[in-house]
Automatic annotation (TrEMBL):
Gene that encodes the chain: Lipo
Enzyme class of the recorded protein, top EC level: isomerase
Record's protein name: Prostaglandin-H2 D-isomerase
Family to which this protein belongs: Belongs to the calycin superfamily. Lipocalin family.
Record keywords: Cytoplasm, Disulfide bond, Endoplasmic reticulum, Fatty acid biosynthesis, Fatty acid metabolism, Glycoprotein, Golgi apparatus, Isomerase, Lipid biosynthesis, Lipid metabolism, Mast cell degranulation, Membrane, Nucleus, Prostaglandin biosynthesis, Prostaglandin metabolism, Secreted, Signal, Transport
Organism annotation: Illadopsis cleaveri
């Protein structure tokens, strides 16, 4: 009985590690070109908070800058009710360019972040594996330098999200808004 349980746990852990390793990272990633203002165009996730809040979500702005240590400071400003909320995150670089880690001080969750694909001047596709004591989840973000992207880029985001095991009801093209856009300059 114990051997069976250990085998199942081992396979589950191996599956989690395989999932993280199977997420690609941008070839020849150039961190300095990722800096600046981005708009969150698409969000996909199988987390409970996403399922609960998805109907409230709108496009937001994200500013990415590089710290002295070479990590990424990520500042997102988004509408929440009748106010603008700003969230700062520090993505710590790893040995692999284009891959970062982040631990949420609020929730204690560990984030394994991959810059999957970007041309730096138009779009960036970012995938995150999130682990916390209650389980793990996947999140995919589509960023754009402008408030709109071509249908081909939106389809690329949708297709990649599906490849990560997300269903159509877990994939959202964020509704545009002008609220909180100027505050994030």
């Amino acid at each position: 009985m114990q051997a069976t349980l250990l085998t199942i746990l081992g396979l589950a852990l191996l599956g989690t590690l395989h999932t993280q390793d199977s997420i690609p990272v941008q070839t020849d990633f150039q961190q300095d070109k990722l800096t600046g203002r981005w708009y969150s165009i698409g969000l996909a996730s199988n987390s409970n908070w996403f399922k609960e809040k998805r109907h409230l979500m709108k496009m937001c702005t994200t500013i990415i800058s590089i710290t002295e240590e070479g990590n990424l400071e990520v500042t997102s400003t988004y509408p929440k009710g009748d106010q603008c909320v700003t969230r700062n995150s520090l993505y710590t670089k790893t040995e692999q360019p284009g891959r970062f880690s982040y631990t949420s001080p609020r929730w204690g969750s560990k984030h394994n972040i991959h810059v999957v694909d970007t041309n730096y001047k138009e779009y960036a596709l970012v995938a995150t594996q999130i682990s916390k004591s209650t389980g793990s989840s996947t999140m995919v973000l589509l960023y754009s330098r402008t408030k709109e992207l071509s249908p081909e880029r939106l389809e690329m985001f949708t297709q990649f999200s599906r490849e990560q095991g997300l269903t159509d009801d877990e994939i959202l093209i964020l509704p545009q808004t002008d609220k909180c856009m100027a505050d994030a300059a």
